[in-house]
Amino acid sequence: MKKKIGILTFYPMHGGGIFQYIQSMVDALAADKSSTYIIFADENDRRFDGYGLEVRKLTPSNRSGLNQVIIFSQLFLGMRQPFFLRDDERRAYADIDLFMSPATSVYPHLFLKKPFIFTLHDMQEKYYPHAFTRTERFKRALRNQALTKAAKAVICESNYVKEDIMNFLGGNANKIAVIQSPPPDFLLRYEAKPENFAAVKRKYGLPERYIFYPAQCWFHKNHIKLVEAFNIIAKETDEDVSLILSGSQKDNYPKLVAKIQELGLEGRIKHLGYIDYEDIPYLYKMARMLVMPTLFESVSIPIYEAFALGVPVCCSNVVALPEQVGDAALIFNPNDPADMADKMVQLLRDKPLATELAARGRQRVRSFDHKEYATKILSVIDR
């Protein structure tokens, strides 16, 4: 009899790269016929309606403030009882043999006492504690410790994160699998429609030449240093280029706006906020490059998106990014605006280099096909 495997896809569209990571995991497992896959999604999420899989939609009860208190009290006390679950949730999850949690979440699998596999994306709070409140650090520590201890297996996307799981959480190396996720399947075979370029350009008021950075305004995304680097390009070179930013206008956004105004770059830097998902490939393809100045990243989904769409990449030399890009990108010190500016100018001026890096990136990402990705995940499930 086939195993019933539940894939938990509860994650906000505006929540960063994990949203795309979830999409890639479903893309990979949807073709497997050795098990029965059941998607658990928010009531208004229609992403997986056409996948030919059963989709069970509900509103998770863990989002209420009271239930959050109950959950973290249980984590603190080492209890795994589903006190907070409604009857409809219990029924929805009752027949599942194994849960896959692509997001680092405890809901609902930890409290159902059922086997589960989860992905731990990073432990940046250990390196940049000042970017998190004391409460956030406490919650992350409780959650990661409980999940790592109870999980049948832990997936991460780089050897760097695997080492962190072993060092900070005492994770058993034998149950930690390093599996890099490709971009969503539709990007690997994406064919742009020529008539859409002009429409997207008008829709967002895009300039002729621009550098693109899609990221939430979180501290570690390093927008401030990027703006300082772009200021060097704007004030000290003759490059007629703009900087286009996208992502949620929360968290560090006020500081970003203040820095742009302080440097008088309002006419050269534009923050678009949230981009409609169907427009994102065109934002990439019209850009001169993707810049990724992050201070901490296990694996960058936007880098793989740029690779898949044939866009040259310029990125940080931190954590696992050199491991991810290999020889397919220019890398810089994200704490050094001058170095960042120098690498971006190099890519702007050297068209043969930009073309070569784009070709290497495309080749690199196409080696991560969803069939191979599925095979690696299935080997963890089977083990």
TrEMBL record:
Pinpoint the Glycosyl transferase family domain residues: 207-364
Report the source organism: Thiothrix litoralis
Could you identify this protein by its name?
Glycosyltransferase family 4 protein
> Coiled coil: which residue ranges?
none
Residue ranges of every copy of the Glycosyltransferase subfamily 4-like N-terminal domain listed in the record: 16-180
Q: Which PANTHER family match?
A: BLL6006 PROTEIN (PTHR46401:SF8), GLYCOSYLTRANSFERASE WBBK-RELATED (PTHR46401)
Q: Which InterPro entries match?
A: Glyco_trans_1, Glyco_trans_4-like_N
Top-level taxon in the UniProt lineage: Bacteria
Gene3D superfamilies xrefs: Glycogen Phosphorylase B (3.40.50.2000)
